[in-house]
């Protein structure tokens, strides 16, 4: 027992940043071992031969689309199916991450798969460090550190070490949220711009800033809200909205089709419900109906979706969630509203929910040692399940992560 106490004291004497790095690094080792096991049992597939190496296995699925962008950019003419609809193409994947990887490839002469994994892992470490700073704004030091543990072992955390843009996006999102919490709105402008061209997020962040503005106005009697700050916040909100539309406008200019980006995104849901137009807030109800019929042969998916939304709302109002303060919960609300507006729930749903990661701070609040050990164990078990169901390729697989 004395040895454990000495070890605990030594751990707490380490700088906080080093503890974050060690926690995140240890989690990546565990995830790497899991992925190596799946790679060793992986059969030949459209991206690799049998039993691929780690970096090849980490570059499948959307990683190949990012590689296409890094190598050749975007098509000026949209590819179409035999019946005339826009088919899946590179416009669905934003340019910042493949551009960063291409720069690393140019400087280091590394091949795509290695350079992409290096960029993702380094950005993942950066995201963990920023997440810790974000949690320290609202939580006690020990709770903030356990929130980092949950971030590092989360069920979808393998995405932080594969050829996907999430690591870079989480890093930028964490910085943007931290700047908003500190009311440094103009400083956030370049971060918002790059973030909005890394993953679709500009409109969600604009909605968050609108909610943040409303909250500051509501509380201005208790917490001063000078006119200058209000103006700077409005500028940031308008900038986020502009950047939210920037990529669709760029796709329109290059291809000549006003709906090039949305048509491209809709192509990914055509294997579920066929081709159609984007109708805001309809996709989740269509998806709920599709999944209920597909899995249970029953109609009425909305009756499952609506109670789920009620549970989420109650969770955001719970005591542990309130410990995060208003602003981080407003981001979670804004992002979930954005997903409800534009996203069709499919196999990538769990990954696309990950930008709500500030909510992990609420799960870190309970101090019971048994609870914390169980939380880590359950997260690692779900991580294994996510890799088994979503990442490995099992024959003809239409469920990209």
TrEMBL record:
GO molecular function: alpha-1,6-mannosyltransferase activity; GPI mannosyltransferase activity
Pathway(s) served: Glycolipid biosynthesis; glycosylphosphatidylinositol-anchor biosynthesis
Membrane topology: Multi-pass membrane protein
Transmembrane spans: 20-40, 109-131, 138-156, 188-210, 230-254, 291-316, 328-344, 373-394
GO cellular component terms, A-Z: mannosyltransferase complex; membrane
Record flagged with keyword Cell cycle: no
Protein name as annotated: Mannosyltransferase (PIG-V)
């Amino acid at each position: 027992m004395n040895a454990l106490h000495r070890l605990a004291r030594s751990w707490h004497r380490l700088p906080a940043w080093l503890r974050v790095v060690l926690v995140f690094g240890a989690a990546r080792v565990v995830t790497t071992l899991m992925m190596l096991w799946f790679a060793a049992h992986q059969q030949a597939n459209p991206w690799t031969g049998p039993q691929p190496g780690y970096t090849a296995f980490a570059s499948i699925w959307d990683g190949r689309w990012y590689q296409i962008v890094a190598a050749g950019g975007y098509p000026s003419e949209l590819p179409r199916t035999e019946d005339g609809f826009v088919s899946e193409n590179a416009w669905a994947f934003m340019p910042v991450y493949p551009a960063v990887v291409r720069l690393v490839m140019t400087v280091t002469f590394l091949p795509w798969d290695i350079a992409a994994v290096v960029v993702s892992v380094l950005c993942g470490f950066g995201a963990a460090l920023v997440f810790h700073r974000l949690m320290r704004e609202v939580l006690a030091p020990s709770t903030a550190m356990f929130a980092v543990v949950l971030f590092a072992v989360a069920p979808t955390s393998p995405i932080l070490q594969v050829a996907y843009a999430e690591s870079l996006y989480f890093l930028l999102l964490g910085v943007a949220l931290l700047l908003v919490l500190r009311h440094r709105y103009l400083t956030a402008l370049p971060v918002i711009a790059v973030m909005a061209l890394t993953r679709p997020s500009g409109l969600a962040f604009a909605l968050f800033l609108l909610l943040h503005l409303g909250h500051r106005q509501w509380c201005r009697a208790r917490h001063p809200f000078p006119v200058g700050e209000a103006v700077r916040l409005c500028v940031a909100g308008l900038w986020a909205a502009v950047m939210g539309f920037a990529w669709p406008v760029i796709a329109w200019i290059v291809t000549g089709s006003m709906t090039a980006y949305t048509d491209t995104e809709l192509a990914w849901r055509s294997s579920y419900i066929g081709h159609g137009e984007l109708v805001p807030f309809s996709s989740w109800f269509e998806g709920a109906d599709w999944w209920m019929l597909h899995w249970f042969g029953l109609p009425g998916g909305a009756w499952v979706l609506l109670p789920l939304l009620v549970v989420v709302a109650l969770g955001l109002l719970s005591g542990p969630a309130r410990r995060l303060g208003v602003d981080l919960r407003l981001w979670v609300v804004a992002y979930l509203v954005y997903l409800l507006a534009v996203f069709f729930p499919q196999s990538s749903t769990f990954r696309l929910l990950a930008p709500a990661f500030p909510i992990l701070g609420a799960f870190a609040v309970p101090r019971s040692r048994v609870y914390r050990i169980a939380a880590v164990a359950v997260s690692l078990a779900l991580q294994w399940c996510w890799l088994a169901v979503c990442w490995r390729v099992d024959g003809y697989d239409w469920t990209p992560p």
